[in-house]
Each structure stands twice: as C-alpha cells, then as structure tokens.
Amino acid sequence: MSRRLSPPTLLLMLALAFPACQDSQTRPDQATANAPASEEPGQAALEKSEPRNVHAELRALFGGYEYVPTLEDLHRVGPAEEVVPVLIALYRSEKVSPHQQHHALRALHFYPEHPEVARTYEAVIRGPESTDQARRVAVRAYGSAFGDEGLELLGFALTHPDYHTRASAIAALELTGSERSLELLQAHLSEEPETDLQAEIKRILDTAGTSEAPR
Fold first, then answer.
1. Helices (H), strands (E): how many in the chain?
2. pLDDT confidence band for 4 (50 / 70 / 90)
3. How many CB atoms lie within 10 A of CB 61?
4. Polar residues compositional bias: what residue ranges (predicted)?
5. 59 contacts 96 by C-beta, under 8 angstroms
6. Using CA atoms, how far apart are residues 108 and 17, in angstroms rounded to an integer?
7. What does the alpha-carbon distance between residue 45 and residue 55 come to, in Å, rounded to a whole number?
8. DSSP states of 98-137 as a string?
9. How far, in Å, CA of 101 to CA of 139, rounded?
10. In this model, does residue 5 exceed pLDDT 60?
C-alpha cells in the first residue's frame, strides 16, 4: 500500500529538486563564467596594426586584363612612399606576368613628384634592353605625367626606330596639347617616314589650328 505524502512534505521535495533541474542547463551567469577567455587586451590592436602586404595587394589589383586601376585604387593600397617602390619592383620582376608589369609601369604616372618615377620612365624609354611594349607604355604614361616638362624625352621617342613607339609619342604630344608640343610635332612631320603617322600628325595640327582660329 503506497504511502501518501502530506502537501507540506511534497512542496518541500519539489523545492529541493528545482535547483538540480536548473543546473542541468547553462545558466546565464555560468555562460559568462564558462566562456572562453577573451583575447589579451592588446592582442586585437596588435593584429589590426600589422603592416599590409602592399606587394600582394598591388599584384592582385593588376590581375585583370581589361581593368586599368585608378588613382583611387592605389590610394586604398597605401601612400606614395610605400606604393611607388613596389610598383617599380613589380615592373622589374620576372615572377609576374607581362601585363602586370605593364600595369605597374603605367601606374607610376600617378606619382610625378616621386623622384624615382621620371628616372624609371627614362631608363625604360632610352634603354636598349627594354621591350617594345614596355617602351610604348612608358612613353604614353610619361607624357601624361610630365607634359611639357617631358618634351625632350618625348622628342627622343618621336624619332625612335620602332613604329609604335613613335605612334605613342605622337599620342602623348597630342594629349599634352601645348604650343611647344605642337611645334615639336610640326618639326617632326617632314622627318616621319610612315605616311599614316604623317597623316596623324597633320590631323592633330589641323585640329589645333581650327581650335585657334579667330572668333
């Protein structure tokens, strides 16, 4: 015959059993106490201050064939004093593709104030070991960066034996668009051996003459 518990006794047993049931789950205070220890106070800050891999970021930026990186793209990578030496190193590196080399060479034109930029372009344009493609890229980029200040070197490119180097010099001088650049094209007109490049120079001169016609 089962023993019937009195109501007070039953309530006492339930009260004693309740904490045991609660402990079978994680209580809010225990969740905090049992959580993994947080990072050391300076650890997160140290990780955030680790230097960026500028070389890898630029190499990835130059990975596309069609997209030409902008100055804003380069600013996101870092300041000129960090970016320019890496651009020069990438151009000279044999571990990247030719189009990445040319992207790096072209991107230097955004930094005309950096002392190594003009020297690098001149070495590429004048250097007999430079590839024709690199020289063409350098001529256009140099003209974009230095304009009238670069006319002596653009004049050298204008008389280069390579057809496309001369074409690049003509395009760079058109972009400069100054009176001195037009005078340089005029002086070269009779010396240009290719009729299609002669025609291009005439077009540029005619356009400039039309734009300067009396109003």
1. 13, 0
2. low
3. 18
4. 23-35
5. yes
6. 77
7. 23
8. HHHHHHHHHHGGG-TTSHHHHHHHHHHHH-TTS-HHHHHH
9. 15
10. no
User: Which H or E run contains 40?
Assistant: none
Q: How far apart are CA 199 and CA 134, in angstroms?
A: 25
Q: Which pair of structure tokens corresponds to residue 181?
A: 């650049």
Amino acid at 76: R
Over the Cα atoms of the chain, what is R_g? 35
Q: Which amino acid is at 196?
A: D
Amino acid letter, 209: G
Over residues 22-51, mean pLDDT:
43
Render pLDDT for 73-95 as a digit per residue (tens, 0 to 9). Answer: 999 999 999 999 999 999 999 99
Tell me how far the alpha carbon of residue 165 is from its chain's centroid.
25
Q: Which residues contact 113 (CB under 8 A, 6 or more apart)?
A: 80
The yes-or-no verdict on residue 215 having pLDDT over 90 is no
Residue 157 and residue 110: Cα distance in Å, rounded? Answer: 21
Is residue 146 within 8 Å of residue 117, measured between CB atoms? no
In the chain, pLDDT over 70 holds for what percent of residues?
73
Q: Which two tokens stand for residue 170?
A: 């003509």
Give the span between the Cα atoms of 11 and 114, in whole angstroms.
86
Buried b (16+ CB within 10 A) or exposed e, 35-55: eeeeeeeeeeeeeeeeeeebb
Q: Where do we find the tokens 């109003």? A: 215
